[in-house]
Amino acid sequence: MNSKCWGVTASVVLVVMAALVTGCPQNFVLETVTVTATVQGQGIVVPTGGFVKGITIFAVAIPDAGWTFDHWEGDLTGSANPAALLLNGDKAITAVFIEQPGGGEPLPVSADPGLSVEIQSVTIPADLRAEVKFVAKDNKNVALRKSDLASVRFMINYLETPAAGSTARYISYITRNDTTLGTNPPEGASKIQATTDGAGNNGVTDNGDGTLTYKFQTALPASKYAQNLTHCVGGQISRSFGGLTYYANPVFNFRPDGQPVTATRDIVKTEVSNACHTRLAFHGGGRREIEYCILCHTTQSTDAGSGNTLDMATMIHKIHRGENLPSVEGGTPYQIIGHGNSVNDYSEVVFPQDIRNCAVCHKDASQADVYLTKPTLEGCTGCHDRTWFGNPAETPAGYENHPFPQANNAACAGCHPATGNSDLVPSMNRVHRTPEQKSPDAVGLKLAFEGAPVLNEDGSVTISFTVQKGDGSPVTDLSTLSSLSGTLASPTGDYQSYVTETIRNAAGLDATNAATGQYKYTFTKKPDQGLNATYAIGLEGRWSYTYEETTYRQGPEANPVIYFTVDPGVAPAMRREVVDEAQCLACHNKFALHGGQRVSVEYCVLCHNPNKTDEARRPAEQMPPESVNFKDMIHKIHTGEELSQDPYTVYGFGNTPHNYNHVRFPSDRRNCEICHLPGKYGLPLPAGVAPTVITQGGTLVETISPATAACTSCHDSPAAIAHSMVMSPGGVDTCVFCHGVGAEADITVTHQMAP
User: Which CATH number fits domain 445-588: 2.60.40.10, 3.40.50.1820, 3.40.50.880, 2.40.70.10?
Assistant: First the structure.
């Protein structure tokens, strides 16, 4: 192939390969031809695509020049868009043009999914339009071209010099007026929001060496531009490949004067948030990094629709406190009006652990402790949003006055130091800890088995166990505990029955060695299964402590569970492991259910078995009963507001109704490994898994096959339930044929998160 050209010439590689177009012939041959191309303006122009006679042309685009071909398997003359002219008989081709600077080896062409982006440098030239040099790569570390990227956006901020008592905040150089005012915007609501630069993909130049350069359309305002301040460039970049979209949010801190960056804002890490959220993915999925989010969610940004600030420090605290915000409890919903006037109401968000545990989010960052060392009005009013810091004579209705007016953050740390126990000057550490963390009497409780259970001649079972304080000292008097019980359940394939017996003051308790915290207990209930059945025994308990004239309950560090058979020659078959409790605790921090004494999943399933319902506590007018089988119940609770069936209510102690239709799961439920161990949620199910059985007054109400019970706990629409009934006739699961591992609709595949 030859090229008639003018201007400077450069070596270019043309790669011809089969196009992935429906109906195209399959007999294509990969061919690489070196041609000479014209360089004009900013670089070599490469066609961006076209469809002629089933021909699809894709190319890396470098703007501002033209190609002229005088030969391509015949006489063809190209012009501004030669893509429509690259014909090869009846064959469909895909052409990818890659600049080969200096006559070196051709750059590789990406044929792999994925996207990672690294900003290499940022310069601010005389025109004050920043230039960002970056590299985008696929999963195999092959550099991507401009045409590989679906969308490119960048923004630029500077880190302000903080006022006394404040933390340094990023301020965006680029803002916009939000024209989305919602359905009923507050009078005088601000329209200002930080935003990205407007050049988009047109601002990108392919440098031909595997790097790309983005030129900002917006010039930095000379009045605000200070070269000695830390600046930050953040990107929102996407790539489409194989029908999927990949995203990256590169962030780069620098000083325009070339000096080392010493001032930063590093308070919360993305990976810490993702311990609960799995993967942040906001505003269509392309904004995933906290370090990028804070460049838009600055003190400049306001939601015009509601009048609420979009400042990260305030907004995130409000969202996470949700239904417990003083404003929400006072009757004012907390809402943000989003894209298309969508109303995002966070008034029913329930933080899945004690909101005072600030360190669950504030850790692993270099400035993670600023909530202790630099309390601010912005941060504090995020949670305490009905505290008034202004003139007491102007206190709005529903607000509580701060002890004295405070216009800024300068004096906050003086009254609220990081540490200390004074009532007069309450420290941040003191008021942001739970009573269990603060009280010296909340020493903890440890329960443990000693040796295997013993089968007595009369068929009863005796267990040996120890009871200790959290410091390891023995509990020598069980009457100091509020409760102590043991649960005997069987069989371990899927528990069908259980009994819980009080130990603390029971006749079967042997306290001969109480001085060392060692005890024995003989169950009244005798095993009644076959010789080969495995039984499980677990312990629960709690004690109470008093702190500041209030009594609190404290459960054990864990519920120990031990397994045994009545035949000493048969090894116990432990119950299958299904969930990773560490994953659960990433959100919940600790379990403290049923008065705080049941704290381990392995123990919970002893009672929450396939035959268990809430019949004993459900009012007659609310029948039939609801299953409280662990998998059914936990799937439904975590599906929450996305359940089709309303209401989902379980009745608990004291006949108290617990409705879960408002629950918001903080992640993508398709990712089953948020809770499940790898390989422990696919089909077929393990042997011994029992169907969910619901009875009322001893009469069978419903039997739900095991796989159907698990699936319809999340997929509970009428259509999904009807499908499961048709495909599982007579309660016999046939799900594995379509949804088993390797099958057409393998759930381990269909439940994978998008990239």
Answer: 2.60.40.10
